[in-house]
Amino acid sequence: MRLHNLIKSGGRKDRKRVGRGEGSGRGKTSGRGHKGQRSRSGSSLRPGFESGHVPLYRKLPKRGFSNFKFRTEYSIINVGDLDRLEAGSIDRDVLVRFGLARSSSKLIKILGEGEVTKAFTVQADKFSASAKEKIEKAGGTVVVNEPAAADSSEAPAE
Asked: Domains in the chain, start-ordered, CATH in brackets?
């Protein structure tokens, strides 16, 4: 017996063998009951469906707001992670090269967790107040990227 052979007790259920005679306990209707929509093959009702009634989620009022479509997402990097790099200039390319940010991530935000012992010139889209303070205290500088201007093609026609 090895560590990779161990199976957690209750971690795997036995397969249900259905439709193998009434003596098996799951013969004839195979645990689906008699007739009705749920007994048919291919039947699956969407979540919240209440067969002819107005579903609960439509009876209750809407509440709150979600800015899921409109929010700006940042790749988050702490100053403690930057301190592992050599002193000098740090921008998106350097962060991607050292695996701290993905090239696909649109915006980068620097947060203040950790300590800074070297002088950096850090270029990013956003900085927390504590990150800015720590970088400048260590003798570094902070450069905030300008937001990209909207395309002129998207501007409304006059």
From this structure: 75-144 (3.100.10.10)
